[in-house]
Amino acid sequence: KGKTKTVWVCSDCGYDDGQWWGICKQCNGVNTMKRFSEGVERPMSGFEVSENVTRSWLPHQSVRAMPTKLTDVNKGINQSNWRIPLSGLFGAEVGRVLGGGLVPGCLVLVGGDPGVGKSTLLLQIAAIVAEGCDMGGPAPVLYVSGEESVEQIGNRADRMRIGTDEIFLYASTDIEDILEKAQTLSLRALVIDSIQTVYLRGVTGSAGGLSQVKECTEALLRFAKKTNIPVFLIGHVTKSGEIAGPRVLEHIVDVVLYMEGEKYSSHRLLRSVKNRFGSTDELGVFEMSQSGLQAVSNPSEMFLSEQQSDSEFLAGLAVTVIMDGSRAFLIEIQALCVAGSSVSRQVNGVQAGRAEMIISVLIKQAGLKLQENGVFLNVVSGVSLSETAGDLAVAAAICSSFLEFPLPMGIAFIGEIGLGGEIRTIPRMDKRINTVAKLGYKKCIIPKSAETSLSSLDLGDTEIVACRNLKEMINIVF
Ligand code: TYD
Ligand code: MG
């Protein structure tokens, strides 16, 4: 049989491409790409054509694929640059974390603790994608929930004043059923809330179990790649901080985003941990309000507002950045120095030996008269400091309490302290500083020796202060 050349042409604007796209890359028309082959006009919709591969997302059904010439793949298209833009302030913030918009056919996993706001976030993303102000008008987005009823989601949308015509809600946990329904809608995007509630018939184990989670994710990946429809998965995070089910999940998907928030703060961070289409340095900052999440375009205001309300309580408080896997976290360290007869040292979240060493170095090398003081140390919100990167913040917190000098908000400390009072560099300096800058901190105190490695970072308005030793740090900050 001779070679047949197939080309896909947009029935609206005439754009042609070597493969089918759910959305025309030129005019953003939905489901307008029609197939032509051998010069014979055979317009069909994308889904009709995929009849023979209709159920190919199911496991163990191999699809016949042929190797493609690299030059054919790249001919005339720059696929990696083509993205579905997300409009508005909120859309821009989400789009930035995604690496500059939504890539067609990508599988995005959004993880986070229960109650942090994942469903809220995805409903809002669904709304802006469906409205599609920058994409040639509205198109359907399907929001599937295995956690809540359609009415519950409707109520939430109502409170958030989302009223677009193009969001479809569906309560189901059967992947086959979901993907069959999805096919009939010519979707622009699909949301699955959550991966732990869906199951695939014929796969052993209950929903949320290792093999179900893995097989379902793979089925959704095949669906996304086949149809070029972007798919969002919500995943719950276990107590140990991993997305429930296998870590495998993170390997299957294209993009992994984590949503984080403090218990008593309305701020939410959206962090990219893995991104096949962009950098993982991006950090989105949002605020949870009565009507959903709002982008915080100037994160430094977060700190200003806190400073004004409790400025008098801040002596003895310093901020540092710790790493957990590939993620950087800001944590607060509190110190309390009490002059008097009891010279006890109580530490929480800091290794006792490490704390003792920092106190001794402060006495001997920085001339702080801590001998007559009881020193209490505490890492806020129960985190334990397992790295030496927090040394400098511990020292700064102690100085701040001892001198009764509140540190200004918006200043972070990163560095290890040596016995000579010198400040030493620590691993992943760039990643930590990047997080500080993205969050709009005004100042970051770092070791002098780390200064040279930062030239490539975009630091915005964050001022980097490099110090050789503790004395220098105290002179600059206090
Ligand atoms: P939700 O999106 O249900 O979290 P998840 O899906 O991650 O479990 O959001 C949970 C919290 O968000 C809930 O405690 C209420 C709060 N919330 C608001 O403050 N404002 C809102 O507009 C919405 C929809 C929720
Ligand atoms: Mg939810």
From TrEMBL:
Which Gene Ontology MF annotations are present?
ATP binding; ATP-dependent DNA damage sensor activity; damaged DNA binding; hydrolase activity; metal ion binding
For whether the record's keyword set contains Heme, the answer is no
Q: Which domain of life is it from?
A: Eukaryota
> Which sequence ranges form a coiled-coil region, renumbered to this chain?
none
Quote the protein name from its UniProt record. Answer: RecA family profile 1 domain-containing protein
Its keywords, alphabetically, are: ATP-binding, DNA damage, DNA repair, DNA-binding, Hydrolase, Metal-binding, Nucleotide-binding, Stress response, Zinc, Zinc-finger
Q: Which residues of the full protein are shown?
A: 109 to 586 of 589
Q: Which GO terms describe its biological process?
A: recombinational repair
Q: Which residues form the RecA family profile domain?
A: 83-237
